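>> received
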Amino acid sequence: MTRTQGGRSLAVALVLGTGCFIADASAQKLPEQVRILVPFTPGGAADTGIRIVSQWINQNGGPQMVVENRPGGASAVALNAVKTSQPDGSVIGVCESGAMSANRWLFKSLSYDPQKDFAPITTYVSVPIALAVPGTMPVNSMQDLVKLGGTRELSYGSQAVGASGHLMGAYFAKLGEFKTIHVPFRGSGPAVTELVAGRLDYFWTSFPSLKGFYDNGQIKVLALGSAKRDPAFPKVPTTAEQGFPQLAIDFWFGLCAPAGTPAAIVNELQARVAKALQSKEVQAQYQAVGMQVHSTTPEEFTKLIVDDTARFKEIVESTGAKIE
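>> returned
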């Protein structure tokens, strides 16, 4: 090889190498549009919370966040769509404590692995889960409901099989020693409608899903699943106050990307959500509907999923709840 040829070869190599570097760097950037798949129908905390955050991001530099509802399969429909998407940040999904921590123990088999198929980005909201009954039901406390359960079988609704309403409904019946019928829905909205109509006896769900009906007296909220009263709802007693400290359980919603998504993209998405959650506008909107800001780093969120998986194993085993 002549010196000139060698120089040209080196130059070509450098150009190609630089080209590869540019391509790699480009692959680390957020896409202009991010689709967020929500595994529930509109109206619940998962949907409301991420729409508030997405609107703020859209109005403050982007990327454009597009929320799509994909209910069904106890979150599996949405999560499987996320799992099989390109790991480039263009498609992410809402993942919640039931789907990411409890379903492993509820289902004989899952079509996704919560700890292997996803890259946790951040949590964005936690909600006080509330025990609600129809406004016309002659009960005013958890003990009243337990007594009623001693006279007949009670029906309870849930957002989906394996969701928080299912686990809390079954766990409450186990602790209160009464018989129940579980009626799963696709999201909180349809279940609340049935509760208001008196066709369900009780429903555990996020307070934001209930607030409007609670304010106008169409439902009663007997308890919040927490150790301390929520300052936003000071008149509502806690489960701990009423003799059920085991039901003081925090439920969260977060965002997950497909496994293999570059850390730079995951971290940038987390940073955009965190900035939104720090804004006074988002915090005010959350507070107005009874939601609490819950912001974590990808590392903290990963640990939360692992820790809650161990906790929900105990809850599921104690209720004997299993889904084929």
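>> Residues 128 and 190 are 20 Å apart (CA to CA).
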